[in-house]
Amino acid sequence: MKNFLKRYFFSFILILLPISLRAETFYLINPSIQCQAYLEISYKEIFNKKNNLYVIEFNKGSKFIKKINKYNDYEYLYHAQGYEAYMIIAKTKDQKTGTLTILDVKNPCRVIVTQDEGYAYLSNNALNKESNHLNELKTIKSNNNINSDLPYCQSTLYVNKSFGFISNKDLCNLATKVTYQNNIMKRMWRDESDTIEEQKYTKEAKNRNLNCHQIENNNFEFKKCFGKIIYKDGTQFFGDIFGSIPNGIGISNSSDSSSYNGHWKNGKRDGKGTYIYPDGSKYVGEWVNNQKNGIGSYKKNNGITYSGEYKNDLFDGRGVEISPSAGIIKQGIYSQGEYKYYEKIDIKDLFSRLKESNISIKDNNIDELIINNEPKENEEIVELDSNFPVRFNESKKESALLTNDIKDFMKQNNNLDPIILGELFLKLKNSNIDNPNQEFITNYETLLEYVSKDKDFNLYVRQRKAKRKNDLLIEKDKIFKFIKHAEVKINDYISKNLDNEKISETLKLAKKVRAASDNEDLKFLNELVNEVKVWLKNNNILNYIEEMKLQEDKVTSIKKAQEEAER
Q: In terms of Cα–Cα distance, which of 100, 67, 104 is closest to 83?
């Protein structure tokens, strides 16, 4: 009973305490750095940070803080004298938040305040997200040299593609409802009083950034801004947005690893741009209604590039195909994606048109294409240049590796068509391999292009190449050990035979051996090994392999002797 009376007594005393002695707390929403500095200097006794929120906290009875009660429209109004500063904290009854103002002509400070800690936390978090959003847009715009004059969108758009069939106009009609205020018709967003289905339209309209409530004579005011769109399938777009869809210039990155960087019209690729396919192939040039149309350059993942005219997404018109190993392999007239017949192409004119179709954003291969293939001044264009025999031999060597890889790959389950493969093998086999010719290179690259489309084969070839590379390193390591051992023996021989009349031949070999450490040509190294073997044998000197075998035999003999002794 005593404890109860004590508790009741102290509670009663707290109630009777003057209201003026209780603490007041105001939470600041995203104060500027200037305001933070001002408050830390002039009001350090009442300004602090609590739970990641900036706070003004004081007792009402403080002599530096005065409450003004004569204005009925205010829920609270405080004047606070600080160090060389004067602050006003005020909130009218019709507002959800108040304001903190420090009066200074040169460096004014104004911050939104609230006494609701939860509201302050959510508001600051939202502002931080908005700041991160704007920083992301600025970075994307700068890194990709996107030339857009539109203001930044204030938030990311999340677009559900299932609504794609609904036009913006129809969506606005479904997302809003008509109300009358003072005999004036207004449109308002649907809310909790409407059905869940109707509220979905409102949510989608907001995601599209539509101002559906601002309708005048059935015309809709759409926001134009530079922003970010995230689609339901994971595709992200950064760039100019009008009516919730890409319009202008921008970048799209899809979940299948494809990307587009260029001009857009009504949500489709239209104008000039670069498209990178999931397999790494790339198109740079002109677009109409999401299709390649006009002049452009398409670089396949095997390195072969088609440059020329397009129609309805296909090679159509004049064009040229260039191989990194063989140069120009085809030129002439194409129709509906197929090569029809030869016609001499004005390469200089073609590349001039490609330059004009290029756009001033990153991630394109036009410059690389021009540098590697554009004719120099007064240079005559020929189909087979002076380096053609070298490229022919390289293709011949690569074709031998390719055919062996295909034969081994076909022993396991695969998706390659044996009939198509058989026809391509037959064409390559019937090609002339004795003299350099374009037919062989074309047949080889056609076979390479077909098998390169198969992901399993590409993986298999990468593994085979890795093994060949590793085997080559092991072989070279053995060769260099052999040559290094020989270098020691040859130098020792020279030191002991300086007066020998036949020393000149040995000196030549010694120089050759010393220079071999910088040579990666396997053919040269094997020839040198054979030459060194002959020299060592003629001079009764054991080579590296023979010496290692002798040491192994000695070790084996010692082990046998030890085993017999233990018996």
A: 104
| Alpha-carbon span 274 to 527, nearest angstrom | 49
Which H/E stretch holds residue 356?
A: helix 347-357
Of the candidates 63, 69, 250, 54, the residue with the CA atom closest to the CA atom of residue 153: 250
Q: How far apart are CA 375 and CA 368, in angstroms?
A: 13
Q: Which phi and psi (to 5°) does residue 453 adopt?
A: -75, -20
Spatial contact of 414 and 457, defined as CB atoms under 8 Å apart? yes
- pLDDT surpassing 50 at residue 20: no
Pairing mode, strands 245-253 and 291-299: unpaired
Q: In Å, how far are 33, 49, 113 from 118, measured between CA atoms?
A: 22, 15, 12
pLDDT of residue 89: 92
The beta-carbon contacts of 320-324 under 8 Å, at least 24 apart in sequence, are 320/345, 320/347, 320/350, 322/369, 322/373, 323/441, 323/445
Is 81 in contact with 102 (CB distance < 8 Å)? no
| Contact (Cβ atoms closer than 8 angstroms) between residue 138 and residue 216 | no
Angle between helices 418-429 and 388-409 (to 10 degrees): 150
Each residue of 77-86: b (16+ CB within 10 Å) or e? bbebebeebe
Cα separations in angstroms, 27 against 20, 36, 38, 50, 190: 20, 13, 16, 9, 32
Average pLDDT, the chain: 78
Beta-strand pair 109-114/210-216:
unpaired
In percent, how much of the chain has pLDDT > 70? 81
Residue type, 32: S
DSSP summary character for residue 344: -
Whether 296 contacts 357, CB under 8 Å: yes
User: Torsion angle of alpha carbons 229, 231, 235, 240, nearest 10°?
Assistant: -20
- Non-local CB neighbours of 199 within 8 Å, separated by 6+ positions: 190, 191, 192
Structure-token pair, residue 79: 């004047």
pLDDT digits (tens, 9 = 90+) for 543-552: 888 888 888 8
Torsion of CA 372, 378, 383, 389, to 10 degrees: -70
CA 176 to chain centre: 39
Measured CA distances, 532 to 358, 480, 558 (Å):
58, 12, 31
Beta-strand relationship, 282-288 and 291-299: antiparallel
Whether the predicted pLDDT of 319 surpasses 70: yes
Element (H, E) at 283: strand 282-288
242's enclosing H/E stretch is strand 236-242
Which of 96-105, 303-312, 370-379 has the lowest average pLDDT?
Answer: 370-379
Mean pLDDT of 519-543: 87
